[in-house]
Amino acid sequence: MAVITEIKDLKRIYERRVPRMFYDYAESGSWTEQTFRENTSDFDQLRLRQRVAVDMTGRSTTSEMIGQEVAMPVALAPVGLTGMQHADGEIKAAKAAEEFGVPFTLSTMSICSIEAVAEKTSKPFWFQLYTMKDEGYVRRLIERAKAAKCSALVITLDLQILGQRHKDLKNGLSAPPKLTPKTIVNLMTKWTWGLQMLGTKNREFGNIVGHVDGISDTSQLGAWTAEQFDPSLDWGKIAKIKEMWGGKVILKGILDAEDAKMALKVGADAIIVSNHGGRQLDGAMSSIKMLPSILDAVGDQIEVHLDSGIRSGQDVLKAVAMGAKGTYIGRAYIYGLGAMGQAGVSKALEVIHKELDISMALCGKRKISELDQDVLLVPKDFTGDWR
């Protein structure tokens, strides 16, 4: 087995083992991919302040996210098509997260259904909701998440209209993959992936197929989903969904201080500063650069988390030191899943945890609660002087 020391090691194995269309699905952004790139490169502008002669014994990375104890301030973000990266991908990722002690968020557009993941796990996970025009379907989806004892609803706000991702269009992305000559040639080099997929019944969108009138197989799914994302979603609808859910609600896709204030008004328990991993509005600011202004707008009145660009434990440390109460990893755990299944997700979490723990110690801190901007060196123009 290769020695895994960083997330990039998992990414290299992932690229070799997973069909190209699913690799490209994860490793891409919209349009020119400027925001996709800057989500990670902007973290590099932040430097860490080394401190010495500090007692580093008794360290702990434990923290809380929406009142739930976590082994470190990291959750697995909702990622569509996870079950196409590896057979039963959502189940394997959820089990790895459960064993490690961090939250797992299941996407509406998952391959394994809510019920399938709940059956194979013992602790509650979070469920991410895309709002659809079919209100009856949304209502049933929420009831299914309640029945599965999901402990939080993560409502994604930045996908009312789908951003164009050139690679997905050129690859003819689908689940299961369409067998074109190009696809067949690529799949012939990914035989381990293919054998694993043959061994599972989970090869369609499990939360949709069989749960929507008239959708009994994938041949009817494309047209339905293309028309279903709700462009009329507004704060009034969000408030109604929150009331329908009746539990903890996290709003994902906040990238502006005014929207953060509105999230506060509708009574969300937390917000996620996110640009959808650079997959929606290309040219938008990176999440880490927008975090300070959003924190200034809402203070400690609502829990603020950060998503998009986290690839290491040092990124986690920087985000938390800037004021985030939690972070989310998507691509980082997908690399591990595609590379080595559940063991790969566990390895990704171990790598990030080790980087966080050691970096925290070398900054002279022993607890997550001690992290603040004192451990950072931030460029004077980091957030920019925009007009």
Give your account of this protein's structure.
The chain has 17 helices and twelve strands. It has 387 residues and is α/β, with parallel strands linked by helices. An eight-stranded parallel beta sheet has the order 4-11-10-9-8-7-6-5. Strands 1-12 form a two-stranded antiparallel ribbon. The longest helix has 21 residues, at 342-362.
Give structural attributes.
11% strand; 12 strands; alpha/beta; 387 residues
Low-confidence stretches: none
Overall structural class, as computed from helix and strand content, comes to: alpha/beta
Give the N-to-C terminal Cα separation. Answer: 52 Å
- Give the assembly state of these chains: single chain
Fraction in beta strands = 5-15%
Strand order of the largest sheet: 4-11-10-9-8-7-6-5
Radius of gyration, in Å, reads 20 Å
Q: Total helix count?
A: 17
Give the helix proportion (percent range).
40-55%
User: Would you report the number of β strands?
Assistant: 12
Note the run of SSEs as H and E. HHHEEEEHHEHEHEHHHHHEHEHEHEHHE
- Give the overall shape, derived from the CA principal axes: globular
Mean pLDDT: 95
Biggest sheet, in brief?
A: 8 strands, parallel
Write the layout of secondary structure elements.
Elements lengths: L6 H11 L2 H7 L7 H8 L5 E2 L14 E3 L2 E3 L3 E3 L5 H4 L3 H12 L4 E2 L7 H7 L5 E4 L5 H13 L4 E5 L9 H6 L9 H7 L3 H8 L22 H8 L6 H11 L3 E6 L2 H9 L4 E4 L13 H12 L4 E4 L6 H10 L3 E4 L1 H10 L1 H21 L13 E2 L10
Parallel strand pairs: 4-11, 5-6, 6-7, 7-8, 8-9, 9-10, 10-11
Antiparallel strand pairs: 1-12, 2-3
